[in-house]
Amino acid sequence: MKLDVDALRYLSKDDFRVLTAVEMGMRNHEIVPAELVDRIAGLKHGGTYKVLKNLLKNKLVHHDSSKYDGFRLTYLGYDFLAIKTLVNRGVFSAVGRQIGVGKESDIFEVATEDGTILAMKLHRLGRVSFRAVKAKRDYLLHRNSYNWLYLSRLAALKEYAFMKALGEHGFPVPTAVDCNRHCVIMSLVKGYPLVQVKQLQNPDEVFETVLGLIVRLAEHGLIHCDFNEFNIMIDDNEEVTMIDFPQMVSVSHRNAEMYFDRDVECIFKFFRKRFNLSGQDDEDEDDNDDGSESELESNSRPTFSSITKSSGFLDKELAASGFTRRDQDDIEKYIDGGGEEIDSSDSNDEVPADQEEQDPDENHIPLAVNMNALHLADQHNFLMHSNDKDALEELQ
Ligand code: ADP
Ligand code: MG
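The line above is the sequence of Non-specific serine/threonine protein kinase protein; the predicted structure tokens follow.
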């Protein structure tokens, strides 16, 4: 999606006031009637209606008269609110080029006042890769209670909370800087996704490190669930950073073992194919591995049952960042429901994975598709961050 940040510059205080009013109205309205927007924004002399026209022109809101006449935020509108808030907080001051297109996110460089470059991840749940769209649409027909903006906000909060907690436990992850709405600000990883790396000095060492991460995560009670060559970054010194945490689950999840095995299998498969490593992967032989061997040949596949797992990480540490067990339950409904299944059938075999990555446009779904998928249940506590009273003042 194009993020025309210039437009941000031309938006007035009133524009943001009305945009925020739409967001507030979306707490309990799928489509927010213009009168309600007007009442919340409180602009004089019918100013709200003029502003709404301008927001519509800039595609920050969408006019919807399918059920009754009203407006809702687009992803772009949501982007602008998050960016504006973070800029006001002094987290960064400029948005730069796009550096990544994930399956369900856009990543941009942002610059702080002192010139430090950070990474901004805008979550876009509901966007799926092109070939999966039909399946996803069919899937959505049978599911009508999810709101993608709400889930994107949850995904961002979850990612931020995990990044912070994992970093504090010494895992190689980007530094979590801040989070607002569906947006996470983190340190910029120097390096490339493993999928782009054709050669390594020490493939077996990298392999072991990466496999060791899966094991160490499980020891902390966690499974990544999307641990693959797209979500492992590697720098010139072959140091590894793992990214992308919205889909992580606890080892007590009912499908934990399957997710764990799948993460392990992804790594074996990739290293076998790309670096010709013939890791011993028959599960039935050695069933234990301390991770101490340096020869790949002597590495056996870690098994879920052989790991001593601690629990409670999810509840205690993550709640500290505002991510609660209830949030986790909400987001798991989505993950269990479809995202994963469709993704995995989508990413393997028929199309080379790196080709998919290099063709970002393929991954883009027009905004309309996302928003058509926006079905709402009567979700209260829906879009706003907790301090919604402050939200309007924030924009003064
Ligand atoms: P998604 O959840 O959509 O898969 P990711 O978090 O995996 O999103 O990010 C998508 C891509 O953006 C990554 O493959 C990587 O190339 C790039 N990226 C993500 N985070 C960073 C970061 N902190 N620093 C540099 N590049 C990043
Ligand atoms: Mg990813």
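Note on the example: The longest strand covers residues 94-102. The CA atoms of residues 53 and 61 lie 9 Å apart.
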